[in-house]
Amino acid sequence: MKRLCLVVLAVCCAASLAFAAGGQAGGASSDTVTIGAVFPLSGTVAFYGTESRNGALLAIDEINAAGGLLGKKLTLLAEDDEGNAEKSVNAFTKLTTRDKVSFILGSSTSGATMAMTSLAQQSKVILISPSATNIDVTKAGDYIFRACFIDPFQGVVGADFAYDTLGARKAAVLYDAGADYNTGLAEAFKNQFKAIGGQVVADEAYQSGDVDFNAQVTRIRATNPDVVYLPNYYNDVALQAKQLRAQGVNCALLGGDGWDGLVDNAGDEVLNGFWSAGFAADTTDPRAQTFVKAYEAKYNSTASQFAALGYDTLMLVADGIKAAGSFDTAAVKAAMAKISGPYVTGNIRFDANRDPIKGAAILEIVKQGGKLANAYKTTVNPK
């Protein structure tokens, strides 16, 4: 209890300190404006944050090369939260009180982002996350945005793709019942698939840490599904796909962005597998292709969905500032809420909760040069 009180006191103090920083753009000299960023740049999810930071830096390079923004050049000041909520609060406080920034990108994960949202709302600092997908992220108020789709939307996209593109009419679902991400996608998929005329013939769950799914697979096999929806993380999916194929379940497999990394950790059993993602590096969209080429030239690596989302996150803030004709955060957030147009990760407009209404890329797992790879299949837009 004592520790809880201390944590609450620390957060309240952070809010009070941060409040003084809100309103006008801080971190600005006569010719420069600093954009803050809070990303996991080290730790287990450092890939997400590093890629998003790199995408944002590329966007700043392009803006500055074109003459800057409202007569000012932009700089990015990135802080490392290691994917930790307490450290994200510390980073937010530093950026808003010491560095006087009024626009912050971050964080990459939902928990670390949600630790900052109330502080940002109270201090009138615009906070926009590239990849925090939890449905509650933007509920703190109208200064909070995100560039990625929310978890349930992936379930809807998956159902539409299964029904419309794969021609599936009978679906089985296998998901981790103890994880919000997995259950959120599963429920959205089931509801949408039934709503558009499909039948959910098997609804199977497991617990985090399970490695033997044969009992669930046996029940799934008995229903002879056209598709099996696996809204789980890639390490579980690798095992589930192997056990499904071993029992003769050879239909299409389908999942969400938790499959990112699957091709490096599974075998041919994941072929005829499809998953929803925020971006595909082999997209045919000209705007996205230009980004991919520029990213590869700058960083000598292929742009991931996190890099593309980081780029779009910075561009959304920049477009809000341009539309407002001001760095005042009240004016900018009102302008951002009205954005509707093409970005690297697709056409973006915001709903009433400042969650983007956008399409999702569907990637197919294929064999290329003897190795598994993710290949762009199609884009599913919201109906």
Quick synopsis:
This protein is of the alpha/beta class and 383 residues long. It is built from eleven helices and 15 strands.
Describe this structure in words.
The chain is an alpha/beta fold. The chain folds into 2 domains: 2-149 and 285-350, Rossmann fold (3-Layer(aba) Sandwich); 152-277 and 361-380, Rossmann fold, CATH 3.40.50. It contains 11 helices and 15 strands. It has helices spanning 2-19, 46-65, 85-98, 110-123, 151-164, 180-195, 214-223, 234-246, 286-299, 305-324, 329-337; strands at residues 32-39, 73-80, 103-106, 126-129, 144-146, 170-176, 199-206, 227-229, 252-255, 273-277, 340-343, 346-350, 356-357, 360-368, 371-380. The chain has a 7-stranded mixed beta sheet, sandwiched between helices. The chain has a 5-stranded parallel beta sheet with strand order 2-1-3-4-5, with helices on both faces. Helix 2 crosses helix 10 and helix 5 runs parallel beside helix 6. The chain is elongated. The termini are far apart. The relative contact order is 0.13.
Top keywords for this entry?
383 residues; alpha/beta; Rossmann fold; 2 domains; seven-stranded mixed sheet; five-stranded parallel sheet; 11 helices; 15 strands; 22% strand
Topology:
Elements: H1 2-19, E1 32-39, H2 46-65, E2 73-80, H3 85-98, E3 103-106, H4 110-123, E4 126-129, E5 144-146, H5 151-164, E6 170-176, H6 180-195, E7 199-206, H7 214-223, E8 227-229, H8 234-246, E9 252-255, E10 273-277, H9 286-299, H10 305-324, H11 329-337, E11 340-343, E12 346-350, E13 356-357, E14 360-368, E15 371-380
Parallel strand pairs: 1-2, 1-3, 3-4, 4-5, 6-7, 6-8, 8-9, 9-10
Antiparallel strand pairs: 10-14, 11-12, 12-13, 14-15
Helix pairs in contact: 1-3, 1-4, 2-10, 3-4, 5-6, 10-11
